Amino acid sequence: MPVFKAPRGTRDILPEEACYWDWVTSVSKNLCRNYGYGRIETPMFEATGLFSRGVGEGTDIVEKEMYTFEDRGGSSLTLRPEGTAPVCRAYIEHGMASLPQPVRVYYLAPAFRYERPQAGRMRQHHQFGCEVIGDASALIDAEVISLAWQFFEKLGLRKLTLKLNSIGCDKCRPGYIETLKAYYEPRIEKLCDDCAVRMKKNPLRLLDCKESACQYMADNAPRSADCLCPECLEHFNSLKGYLDLAGLEYDVTHRLVRGLDYYTRTVFEIQPESTGSQSTIGGGGRYDRLIEQIGGRPTPAIGFAAGIERIILNLKDQNVCVPGTGSARILIAHTGEEARSEAFSVYSALQCSGIGAIIGAEGKSLKAQLRQANNLDMKMVVIIGPEEMEEEAVVVRDLETGTQKKIDRRLLADALSAFRINISG
User: Fold this and answer.
1) How far apart are CA 335 and CA 386, in angstroms?
2) Which of 9, 126, 325, 335 is a good FRET partner for 28, with 20 to 30 A between their CA atoms?
3) What integer is the mean pLDDT of 331-345?
């Protein structure tokens, strides 16, 4: 028989890691609620054109990484490689421009990219993302960046750096691109193969190359912030002013361009102290042209996304202690066949009272069931044997202190509720 394994670039989320996922999702939901963001869910697959037009045909995502297939009706569909374009499609389709602007939404969703799997980069990964649609002000940029920064801080991550840049707009970016190409043209022979293609299709991506020789050239390349039009320069200066008021330190990084074609003006990333190509744990920027490119009216917008798998890697690297899963902390041990039935009755009553519990393994001795409770990190054991059956009582043993007490079975739920802080984990 064949031995089946998870497909390459995917992974199972096992119970012992679930507490990290619960922590990341709970922090994201609570934070977005405080900021006034509503949750949005979009389909796992979309029309391929949404991404080729929105993300950009010259990007690595569209050229190399999308999972695209033809359905039985002959339509070309693509598994969602990123979350922004689908949110913008939903904004257009459901007439959200008629709502009070800006519209603030967030999502927690899987994304799919066919790329070489490595730590923090999976072919199926999960994203937390926020989008604000319908406001062009630098104040909104500062809001989104502040939300992203607070998200990582509330998770418990430390030693983070905020990278910031402006890549201009349709008015000033063409001139900057020409300046960039003029810088690279005498050096084209020294570029890697990918950058030779980027030179023709997407010159901005030359600044984002990870090859050492290309990085040296990018470090000395012209800076987009030096080529901004007056409107973009005012926007960028206003954003920096708001971040200063919020007490957020930032590093203006001229090589920061992000990897998608739809970005305009503000781009940013948040990185931990670790270095390497997978150091970024979240980033985003403004995309004022995207909604128009996919069929809507010109609408300004900004957002960010963070990869949950990469966040969890950093939580572990920084030894961040996250809350437990909140799973059952009481084991009901039983000795004898009649006690087993009584244990199930007690178990059912506790569950109806909202107290999590499990029943000890059938056919095991009391000693084995107590060992099971220790292995499962239980807080308490409720013991039911022949003597307890006769007295209509149970014995409650505190596994942390070793103390135990016999109480009336009918009072068990109330007694345990009084000690809920001790058994909730």
Assistant:
1) 7
2) 9
3) 87
Cα angle value 353/354/356 (rounded, 5°): 115
Give the CATH number of domain 330-417; options: 1.25.40.10, 3.40.50.800, 3.10.50.40, 3.30.300.30. Answer: 3.40.50.800
**Cα–Cα distance between 78 and 47 in angstroms, integer?**
6
Judge whether residue 274 has pLDDT over 80: no
Contacts (Cβ under 8 Å, ≥6 apart) of 191: 184, 199, 206, 213, 214, 217
pLDDT at residue 275 tops 60: no
Give residue limits of the domains in the chain. Answer: 15-172+228-317, 330-417
179: nearest Cα among 168, 190, 165, 191: 168
Dist CA 195 CA 205 (whole Å) = 8
Is the pLDDT confidence value at 327 over 80?
Answer: no
For 391-413, give the DSSP string. HTEEEEEETTT--EEEEEGGGHH
Q: Which CATH superfamily is domain 15-172+228-317 in?
A: Bira Bifunctional Protein; Domain 2 (3.30.930.10)
Q: Is 173 helix (H, G, I), strand (E, B) or coil?
A: helix
Global pTM reads 0.84
| Cα three-residue angle 95-98-104, rounded to 5 degrees | 85
Is pLDDT above 90 for 85?
Answer: yes
Tell me how far apart the alpha carbons of residues 168 and 224 are, in angstroms, rounded to a whole number: 7
As given in the structure block, the two tokens for residue 243 are 């971040």
In this prediction, residue 227 carries a pLDDT of 92
The angle that helices 230-245 and 138-155 make with each other, rounded to 10 degrees, is 40
